[in-house]
Amino acid sequence: MSDGARERRMRRTRRALITGARRLTAAHGLGGFTVEQLCAEVGISRRTFFNYFASKDDAVLGTPARDPLEAFGEQFVAGGRDPRGPGLLEALQELVVRSFALLEGPHDRALMLEVLRREPVLLQRLTESMDRHVAQLAALIARRQGCAAGDPFPGVAAAAVSHLAGHTVHELLEERPAGPDPEESPPLAEFADRLARNVRLAGVLFCPPAAVPAAAPEDSAVLPPTTSSPGTAPAAEPSSATEGSP
Fold first, then answer.
1. pLDDT tens-digit profile of 81-107?
2. Which of 69, 120, 152, 230 has its Cα between 20 and 30 A from that of 63?
3. 136-147 CB burial, b ≥16 within 10 A, e <16
């Protein structure tokens, strides 16, 4: 079996486990079924289940057994020591895209809402998991950039990138036409392209083109035009006082 076929099979199994766990939870509650029953429904062994998830709760939430930030974090940090490597923003985008490949799963929102209504404890776990991942990402950014203790830059950067990643996922799911498998996640390249676009648009908000001072009438003929294309922004000049700089 080729690597591509193996990956597709693993993705189908992962989605089937998540969907099955959520359906069983919505119908019977977390305590109303066992891992063995879930595995029988999907057609895999109990041993195989733990290659995907550490627990039944994790299957419901879609939390992978392999934490993406633990899997790719050290490589992200080490990249900051390579002067030929990508800058921080590009490296963060790469990390988010690689994490998306491990986190993708079914997207039946109605079913997930029913699960959370039945088991409110899972909402708390989901919130705690999201907060933990933002904190982990902030710690990785601080290490990569060599930030001093107490520097607020890593936390702000982690929160901003995490929000843009979540927004990109929701945006794709809303706009992407339904295919043969409605639970199939958008292709990785499509997610990466849309994330890059959204990062550029955020750059327009945070680093807008500099305003040209109003000219005196006699000077108006020599001033260049001040047009700009939507969705683009010039590179911001770094400041020596910028927090988060190595």
1. 888 889 999 999 999 998 887 766 666
2. 152
3. bbbbbbbbbbeb
**Cα 39 to chain centroid, rounded:** 28
Query: In whole angstroms, what is the distance from residue 38 CA to residue 241 CA?
Result: 55
- The CB-side HSE value for 50 (13 A sphere, CA atoms) comes to 4
pLDDT at 116: 92
Distance CA 195, CA 168 (A): 6
Whether the per-residue pLDDT at 191 is higher than 70: the answer is: yes
H/E run at residue 209: none
For residue 188, the surrounding DSSP H or E stretch is helix 188-206
pLDDT tens per residue, range 48-70: 999 999 999 999 998 888 788 88
3-state SS class at 126 = helix
Per-residue b or e along 25-59, where b marks 16 or more CB atoms closer than 10 Å to that residue's CB: bbeeebeebebeebbebbebeeeebeebbeebbbb
Residue 1: CA count within 13 A, CB half-sphere: 8
CA 171 – CA 165 distance, rounded (Å): 10
pTM for this one?
A: 0.74
- What pLDDT is stored for residue 99 in this prediction? 86
The pLDDT value given to residue 246: 43
Residue located via tokens 């030929």:
84
Q: Which of 92, 108, 98 shows the shortest CA–CA distance to 22?
A: 108
Mean pLDDT of 207-215: 64
**Neighbour tally for 211: CB within 10 Å:** 7
Biggest CA pair distance of the chain: 83
